[in-house]
Specification:
Number of strands: 5
CATH architecture: 3-Layer(aba) Sandwich
Low-confidence stretches: none
Strand content: 5-15%
Radius of gyration: 15 Å
Number of helices: 7
Mean pLDDT: 90
Largest sheet: 5 strands, parallel
Strand order of the largest sheet: 2-3-1-4-5
CATH topology: Rossmann fold
Distance between the termini: 10 Å
CATH superfamily: P-loop containing nucleotide triphosphate hydrolases
Structural class: alpha/beta
Number of domains: 1
């Protein structure tokens, strides 16, 4: 099984993802690490990414998923996956790819981003992410006000792990 933790920047994808992967004994993959350098530069300058900008990044994540599936490995991937078209590209027709949506209010997530150090995604881009976010159908929804360890327990229960 591959779990994609999705949501806007600052929702807790990396924190929850690392804890979940550790708990399950799976590998964790940070989707942000797969962004082309040009995307990182744009975001660091406060410029929102376009659908066109995101295509190489989504393609790299899809290749990672294909590689994991071909090797029969499970994993946890953090990716914003803001739009349904992005999620369709990532999940494809794989029954073993599950989406977990880390959902939170703008104010809380904005406060989290303000406290982050050494990350290219700045809080000024959060509004563009909330604007682009299309609520997912069929995903496991998790409230980001919960403690990360509680989210891990709830995700495992929801996915029968």
């Amino acid at each position: 099984m591959i779990i994609i933790l999705m949501g806007v920047s600052g929702a807790g994808k990396t924190t929850v993802g690392k804890l979940l992967a550790l708990d399950l004994g799976w590998s964790f993959y940070e989707g942000d690490d797969l962004h082309p350098r040009s995307n990182v530069v744009k975001m660091a300058q406060g410029i929102p990414l376009t659908d066109e900008d995101r295509q190489p990044w989504l393609g790299r994540i899809r290749l990672l998923i294909d590689d994991l599936v071909s090797r029969g490995e499970s994993g946890v991937i953090a990716s914003s996956a803001l739009k349904q078209a992005y999620r369709d590209q990532l999940v494809g027709d794989e029954d073993d790819v599950k989406l977990v949506y880390l959902k939170g209010e703008f104010q809380l997530i904005s406060e989290r981003l303000e406290g982050r150090q050494d990350h290219f995604m700045k809080s000024g881009l959060l509004e563009s992410q909330f604007s682009a976010m299309e609520e997912p159908d069929g995903a496991v929804n998790m409230d980001v006000t919960w403690e990360p360890k509680s989210i891990v327990v709830a995700v495992k229960q929801a996915l029968g792990l």
